[in-house]
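Build the 3D complex.
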Amino acid sequence: MAAMTIIPLFVIIPLGAAFTISLVGKFIKRSSEALILLSSTLMLYLSIHARILLNNFADKTLVYKIGGWAPPFGICMVLDGLSSFMLITINLVAFFVTIYSLSYMERYTDKPKFFTLFSLMVCGMNGLVITGDLFNLFVFLEIASIASYALVAFGTEAEELEASFKYAIMGSVASSFIFIGIAFLYGFTSTLNMADMARILSYKQAGYIIQFVGVLFLMGFGLKAALVPFHAWLPDAHPSAPASISAMLSGVLIKALGVYSLIRIFFNIIGSTANYLQILMFLGGISMLVAVILALSQWDLKRLLAYHSISQIGYVILGIGLGTPLGIFGGLFHLFNHSVFKSLLFLNSGAIDYAAGTRDLREIWGLARSMPVTAKTSMIASMSSRHTAVQWVF
Amino acid sequence: MTYGMTDNPKTGMTLIVKTITRLTIGLVLLFGIYIILHGHLSPGGGFAGGVIVALAFVHLMLAFGKDIAASRISKGLASNLESIGALMFLLVALLGFFGGSFFLNVLAKGTAFKLFSAGTIPLSNISIGVKVGVGLFAIFLALVILEGTKEEKK
Amino acid sequence: MAIYFLCLILFCIGLYGVVRKRNIVKIIIGLAIIEYSINLFFVLIGYRYHGRAPIDASNQDILNMVDPLPQALVLTSIVIGLGITALLISIALRIYERYGTFDITKIRKLKG
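Done.
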């Protein structure tokens, strides 16, 4: 019983840290950095501890009932294999981005507000992968999304504001599609608990409504995951953000909000039939091709990395759409790998931008001599991207 | 009952609006607090009551100009109060830990339909009411001060 | 059934506003109309025949109420919509400071 109380801590600690930083960050010098570093370290330790803890249980699932209310009436938090894997990814990348942004954010004016929004975004993502209730997933999705809209616009330059506006409008329309899908599912099954919904959907005659709901969720979460018909916000939003936020957005946000939610909806709630998996494979394949071709003509470093992100997410969705255990394993392995190396590349691009003053690839020549650490880490990151693509195909 | 609000004819609205505002603003605030406190008995609760409390301060700003309203609740105070409201909510939720589960209703639940019943729900309502009320007024204040600095720069 | 079609029409009006209008403020208003329509749709799903408002008082019994769960969820959704609208309006004000116009065809620094 005491083991289970670790689960709500994933939501409580970033939330408490966010509002405490907002309160005391102005009064006590350096307190905001200390608090955010403490909370990131604690979250990383807790997520690794949760993964090790999960091995002790028989069916490898921990369920925590909030408020003691029994499941069809109350909200549950569920920790199973996929959730603990995503938690480790999110908190690992958040920890490294926190260390990076301790000194990178000196250029921007308002550090306590940045760390408040950052901590709220981490809280939203953690809550999303842990929850077992469909509307709770929507609420955490909105928390993480709104925090990321504000973070993309953080420097208030002209480009950042335009990119953030585009991203916010498209993200809000996608969230409304998701909400309509949840409304239809609630009207059809009269419950919001994910496990209960899966049970009811398995014996109730579905008909057209489940296909309609599937399409709605594909549109909504597909935009959050930047699949190709819905990718148009990403090449504007990721370059314009501060480098640490680009790393968080491209590294974990599109995966936790988009890919994880698609896996939950299409494999656990709505039964995965061959039609949906074919559509996922198709969209993944198109994403791979179109995004890479568009990336070839880019001269801005971060825009190039942003288009590359879209194509790597296409790889992941293709692997997941295969439906076989090896395919899903390959997809998730590439997801973890891409989080790590893409956030590394974005942080390096932030360092290059800071040192050279520009991001245009035509003007950055011969930096390897003056910035050897950045050059070595970029080389490792780029080589690891090719290594994984070859490795999981075989 | 003037609350230190003078009758400067250059800022804000006409004299009629200012007089009526002085009379009704306390009633609006009281109504908002009533809706917050009776959230577990009748429709309303934290968010709706918080919006009405924010409207009281916004009414003050509209009628008298932004300097008077900013002197009542400054931007720094609004930001701090908002964080305190959120932390109070988190604290109420953490109280459930002592009862055994997160967010459990630990205080005494009295007889139904009385004011002091239903455990921790009125406390959650009050903290949400504080946060929403002050937060909405802070949004308004930030937008208005943005307009003000833009006009000074021109 | 007709009520759900009217919600759909409201959603399409909002979507037209987001997609086709050129002024930033009109796009924000279109998004607000979209949010109104989805909240309305979710509340209407909870309707039961001859139901009454789901308020529990000491002199009334619990029978014959409409579904109270969508009403609680829509309250959350209205707050989310409020947050998004406030954020978008402040971004729009700052865009006006930097670009000098509200016209989205002239706000095009990011290309490719």
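Chain B touches chain A at residues 76, 79-80, 82-84, 86-87, 90, 93-94, 96-97, 99-105 (CB under 8 Å).
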